[in-house]
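Supplementary Note 3. Input sequence used for the single-chain structure prediction.
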Amino acid sequence: MGEQPIFTTRAHVFQIDPNTKKNWVPASKQAVTVSYFYDVTRNSYRIISVDGAKVIINSTITPNMTFTKTSQKFGQWADSRANTVFGLGFSSEQQLTKFAEKFQEVKEAARLARDKSQEKIETSSNHSQESGCETPSSTQASSINGTDDEKASSAGPANTHLKSENNKLKIALTQSAANVKKWEIELQTLRESNARLTTALQDSAASVEQWKRQFSLCHDENERLRNKIDELEEQCSEINREKEKNTQLKRRIEELELELREKETELTDLRKQSEIIPQLMSECEYVSEKLEAAERDNQNLEDKVRSLKTDMEESKYRQRHLKVELKSFLEVLDGKIDDLHNFRRGLSKLGADN
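The predicted structure, written as C-alpha cells, is reproduced below.
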C-alpha cells in the first residue's frame, strides 16, 4: 500500500535463457505495462510488470545496476537477486531513451538512500562508542576529585551504567560485524552479477552481429523478390496487351459475322425474287447489278479474309480456338460464293432459254 507509481510505459518483456545465457525468451506475448514504483516505507524503488495475473518483472533497483542500450529500440539490465537478465523491446527510440533516463534517475536516488542509511548506522555506532568512552573518564574524574564517602556512594551506579554502555557497545559492534559480512556477501554477489552481465553483454554483442548478418541476408532477399515482382508485373503487362489484341480480334470477327448475316439476308431475298419468273425478267438487269455489287463485296470480303488470315497466322499460337471458327466461316463463305455463282449461271441459262 506504501508503493506509488512514478513512471509507466509499454514494452515487450524478455528474459535471458537460463540454460544458454545467450538467447532471449519472450516473457509476454504482446506489449505490456512496465512501471517504476517507489516504496515510501522502505525508501526503495522497483520495476514491476504484470501480464494478466502473472508477474513477469519484480526487480528492486540497486545502485550497482546498469541499464544498457543494445540497439535503437532494445535495452537490458541484470538483476542478481532474481538471477536473470531482463530485456525490454520498445516501439520507438524515444520511449527507450525516456526509460533509460528514468532508470539512471532511480538508480541515483537508490544510491542516495543507501548512503543516508549507512550514515545513520555509522552515526549511531559512533554515538555508542563515544558514550562508552566518556563513562570511564567521568568515573575516573569523580573518583579522583571526590572524597572516600563519595567514592563509596557512587561506585555502584557508575559500574552499572558502565556495564550497560559496554553491552550496548558490544551489540553495536556485533551488528556492525554482521553488516560487514552482509556487505561482503552483497559485494561478492554484485561481482558475480557483473561477471554474468559482462558475459551476457558479450553474448548480446555476438547476437547483434548475427542479427546484422541476418538482416543483410533478408535485405538481399528482399531486393531479389522486388526484382522478381517487377519482372512479373512486366509479364502481366504483356499479358494484358495480348488480351487487348484478342478483344480487338473478337470485335472484328463479330463485325464480319454481322456483314455475313446481312449478305445471307440479301441472298435470301434474291432467292425469293428468283421464284417469281414473270417479274424476274424485268428485274434481271437490276439483279445483275446487285450481283456485280455482291461480287465486289465478296471480293472485298475475300481481301478482308486474306488480311484476317494473315493476322490469324501471326497470332495463331495464342488464338488457336479462333482457327476453327474462322475455318468454318471460310467454308460457309466459299459455299455462299459457290451458291452465288451457281445462281448466276442458272439465271444466265434461264435468260438464254427464254
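Residues 132-155 have pLDDT under 50 and may be disordered. The helical segments are 93-145, 148-274, 277-282, 284-314, 320-353.
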